[in-house]
Amino acid sequence: MDVKRVIRHLFLSRWHVNAAFSSRTLHAIEKAVQESHRGHIGQVRFVVEGALHIDALVKGVSARERAIDVFSELRVWDTEHNNGVLIYLLLADRDVEIVADRGVHARVHAEEWEAICQSMEAEFRRARYESGVLLGVEQVSALLKRHFPVQQEGRSELPSKPAVL
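RESULT FIELD:
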């Protein structure tokens, strides 16, 4: 068990999450996701979670494992074309994970997702949370436009509003 990680998670409060993701920032992210859905038929969802529960920390749950759980819990996989993409931020770790449904996963390489995660994490290290998420949404959208271009006006199957857990 990583004691430093446990302490970071235990001392990260809702206040920290709200400071990093104000209502103005969340609204800007929502608008960016809505705009991104106009350029492709992929379904993008952004989630920020402040910290893991102590039980998860003791079990050593990684940000990746938690992102997969959130992907399932929020039913990001439940889209008509299997093209849901979750951008997940575990704020206490400043760790970004991107989980894509099988339709997207078959076309986009893990290295491409990892490059997006790294660019977002670089922004977060500078405490630029809004610009980091907007950059990530833009980069994910560029990949989805390449692999899932708009063929006709579609509907957004997932909420555009960011989830704060």
